[in-house]
TrEMBL record, chain A:
UniProt-recorded name of the protein: DNA-binding protein
GO molecular function terms noted in the UniProt entry: ATP binding; ATP hydrolysis activity; DNA binding
NCBIfam families, A to Z: SCO2523_fam
Gene3D superfamilies with a match to the protein in the record: P-loop containing nucleotide triphosphate hydrolases (3.40.50.300)
TrEMBL record, chain B:
Region (Disordered): 79-100
Top-level taxon: Bacteria
Name used for this protein in its record: Uncharacterized protein
Entry-linked InterPro entries: SCO2521-like
Residue ranges, compositional bias (Polar residues): 79-89
Ranges of compositional bias, category Basic and acidic residues: 90-100
Length: 305, 308
């Protein structure tokens, strides 16, 4: 299965959330890979703590694969052996493969979608689908040629299942922007339909994920004054109404990730050790990733809206 | 001088095995050319040979820049209606001239790449075992494409019973005192260095494809057994994870089935060490024993439940 991760704007936590989802999915016993299609800033290597590709690879990256004349076999990084973090460097018993395909260092956004790049993209997805249970593709923020390319590629792979995750933060602007990215003019549905997707079927394959969510009843808010808490509660109610008016409400939501201080300071994988041993991460955050890693392949969570 | 090739092997992207007639249709890559099929001891279908023109740098362990021009021979095949291979090879020869010839010259010698410059066979062979450089001869890329053609056929449903990586076997054959060296590199990469007496024959290609096929079967079975986590998961769960091996792989082991009698000593030597068949047999026994143990446990549970 192909999963495309996109966000309405930059800085939503799309990359850190999607990497944590594939990490959890691998721990659950599946073979997974992560494709850094955020060609403008390929930083997935840093999140997986693979220093040699922290800002993309200097070898043959995905950018080369799609755009260079010879389409070399793209560089693969086995996270279980190449991560600099000791806790990640041993594959836990029962875990599946966890492979990162980095972008090119200094690659730059796709200048356009040409037939050759599209053909290679289809070939890559098709080969990886043979090999991995889950292929997570980080598509970058907002409307882009990359998003257009993968929408076209999936039209040509009718028997390969795919899903989209749209990451957004829980604020007024982000809710409106997430709605626009999917339902607006030249949004995913418009562009997808133009290239041959069925609008309703495509909509059924898109779900929203809220990031850095602060629940009004969260433990972190205990120190707040009553007035502040009442205000937050009112805001949250208002946002819920706004979200459901804009089809970004509960039914279209796959999950939410609570605000975790650790992720505000450093984008990284949250291991069970971070929760249980060093206790730098919240158990709720790890549980939210774990839950999402199950839900992305759970058909019940993806029934028609 | 020497012949080099690369074989890619993987699981056919279909829910079940496909019959011989579908194999023929899937492998009909060139209209007018026949797909060859042999039925005993296992159904094996192979596409006609196709040519790819190349003009690129030749591999070299000493990083010499030697240009080569000519054609590569490739084919796709399906074994047992279940395993796909894409295979390419070319013979490297010294060019009679220092200058690049017109394509008509190379097309008249299918499957030959002429080296323009001073190429040493040993240097070429050593260099071939490494990853090709960006402008280098990449037989793997060609073989992968010949696999893609099969895997993306509209006649397949793309619902393969399990996910599994393709393996790549890169081989070099030189004339000399007979010997064979098989090396496992990363998860997917293998190399074979083969020395044969007398002239190179296409039977060497068959041998390398047969080796690649059986190495893939062994690799796939190991992966399935690892995923089952015998002893680490409850019996029924482990048994369910082993089932695809029984359904799709165990009957495919036919070492040396298509190997010329003259070359079978190579297979026999690899079967002694590292011992492909020995490892395969012990894994097969393990799978069957696990299933037997699980069946017994199931029956015991059932009869115990009935008594209560």
């Amino acid at each position: 299965m192909l999963i495309f991760a996109i966000s309405d704007k930059g800085g939503t936590g799309r990359s850190v959330t999607s990497t944590n989802i594939v990490y959890r999915h691998a721990l659950q016993g599946n073979d997974v890979c992560y494709l850094d299609f955020d060609f403008g800033s390929p930083t997935a290597g840093a999140i997986f703590s693979v220093g040699s590709v922290a800002r993309g690879t200097t070898r043959k990256g995905l950018h080369d694969y799609l755009l260079s004349e010879v389409a070399p076999e793209p560089h693969r990084v086995d996270v279980w052996t190449e991560s600099d973090r000791e806790g990640l460097r041993t594959k836990p018993p029962g875990a599946g493969r966890l492979v990162l395909f980095p972008g090119n260092e200094g690659g730059g956004e796709l200048p356009a979608v040409d037939e050759e790049a599209l053909r290679r993209c289809v070939q890559l997805f098709s080969r990886l689908d043979e090999e991995f249970d889950l292929v997570m593709v980080d598509v970058s923020a907002g409307r882009s040629f990359t998003a257009e390319m993968v929408l076209q590629a999936t039209v040509r792979l009718p028997s390969v299942p795919f899903r989209w995750l749209v990451f957004h933060r829980w604020t007024r602007q982000h809710i409106l922007a997430a709605d626009g990215l999917v339902n607006g003019a030249d949004g995913l549905l418009d562009v997808g339909t133009r290239f041959g997707h069925d609008r309703d079927k495509l909509r059924d394959r898109i779900r929203f994920v809220r990031t850095a969510v602060l629940e009004p009843d969260a433990a972190e808010l205990v120190g707040l004054r009553d007035e502040q808490r009442a205000w937050l509660f009112a805001c949250d109610t208002e946002l819920r109404e706004l979200a459901s008016r804009h089809k970004v409400g509960r039914t279209a939501m796959l999950g939410k990730i609570p605000l975790d201080p650790i992720l505000q300071w450093r984008e990284q994988l949250i291991s069970d050790e971070d929760v249980l041993a060093s206790k730098i991460a919240n158990a709720e955050t790890a549980a939210a990733f774990d839950d999402l890693a199950k839900k992305i392949v759970d058909d019940a969570a993806w029934e028609g809206l | 001088m020497l012949v080099m090739g690369e074989v890619h092997t993987g699981l056919l992207q279909n829910s079940g095995e496909i019959p011989e007639s579908t194999c023929r249709d899937v492998l009909q890559l060139l209209s007018g050319e026949r797909v060859r099929v042999s039925r005993r001891p296992i159904v094996y279908a192979v596409s006609p040979d196709l040519l790819t023109g190349v003009d690129c740098r030749l591999p070299s362990a000493s990083q010499s820049r030697i240009r080569g021009a000519g054609t590569v021979l490739s084919r796709s095949s399906i074994t047992g209606g279940r395993v796909v291979q894409g295979s390419s090879h070319t013979r490297i020869e010294r060019s009679g001239s220092d200058r690049r010839q017109p394509w008509s010259h190379y097309l008249a010698r299918p499957g030959v790449v002429e080296a323009l410059g001073k190429a040493k066979p040993r240097d070429l062979a050593d260099g071939f075992a490494e990853e090709p450089s960006a402008d280098g001869l990449d037989l793997g890329a060609i073989s992968a494409r010949f696999m893609d053609v099969v895997q993306s056929s509209p006649l397949l449903d793309r619902r393969a019973p399990f996910k599994i990586a393709r393996t790549r076997l890169r081989w070099v054959a030189e004339p000399g005192e007979p010997a064979i060296h098989f090396t496992l590199h990363s998860d997917q990469m293998r190399t074979v260095r083969l020395v044969h007496t007398g002239e190179f024959t296409p039977a060497v290609v068959d041998l390398c494809e047969d080796l690649a096929l059986h190495d893939w079967l062994l690799t796939a079975l190991l992966v399935i057994i690892e995923r089952a986590r015998i002893g680490g998961t409850p019996g029924p769960e482990a048994a369910a994870k082993l089932a695809p091996a029984v359904d799709h792989l165990l009957h495919l082991w036919m070492p040396s089935a298509r190997v010329d009698d003259l070359l079978s000593p190579y297979w026999e030597s690899l079967d002694r060490r590292p011992g492909f068949t020995r490892q395969w047999q012990s894994l097969v026994d393990r799978v069957r024993d696990q299933l037997a143990v699980h069946t017994l446990a199931f029956l015991r549970e059932k009869s115990g439940g009935g008594a209560r």
